[in-house]
Write the structure tokens for this entry.
Amino acid sequence: MTVTLAEAMGWVGLFLWPFIRVGAMFMVAPAFGTRTLPARVRILMAAVVTLAILPVIDGVPQADPFSAEAFFITVQQVAIGITMGFVFQLVLTALTLAGESIAMSMGLGFAQAVDPQNGVNVPIVSQFLVIFGTLIFLALDGHLMLVRLVADSFILLPIGPVGVDADVFWRMATWGSQMYVNAVLVALPIGTALLVVNIAMGVITRAAPQLHIFSIGFPATLMIGFLLLLFAVPLMVPQIERFMHQGYLLTREILGG
């Protein structure tokens, strides 16, 4: 059997461009994009998912992988994949911002750890909320939802040099502003309660100046903050579910579905 160069390039493109889109999504998606997950594992998962969704992919363009057309096709696949993963990543970023606000209010902002998702230092409370949000994401089958989205994306946005446009980036910027709203909604109950505690400490200082408020108030604020987290974390589950549902709807709209 004789295989021509054009046929070989077509077979390469049939797997390569879907693999690039899936790999770009795994690069930034929650649970998959963490730096603690080895790159080889992510590449293997992207290859397995690509092979699984190849039957639903139709109309792959026949282009020379070293041509200008292939370059623009590759750029579009990367942009589509990153867009799908980045929307859900902003949900966890909202929890990071909420944790920073809570940590500063309870006096725990100095205790920081490396966030494995982004590789930066964040307060312990933020790290706790990110881990909690990731577990909720997995419990709600968010990883399966991402695979379903990337499979549907090949139907809604077929492989080609034309894909996402400037309007998509504007909507992503708007969704970024929603991230701060979600962070405030998560941190508001605990932040308000800690504000009342700090006001009470100030009143105690004025009423009894002989008390060492720093030696009393700091451990008291920490203890009350941990108790508030204990009671407030279960109440965050519906909010996290709503954030993820909003991200899913936005991704479907971006893909044209």
The chain has a mean pLDDT of 78.
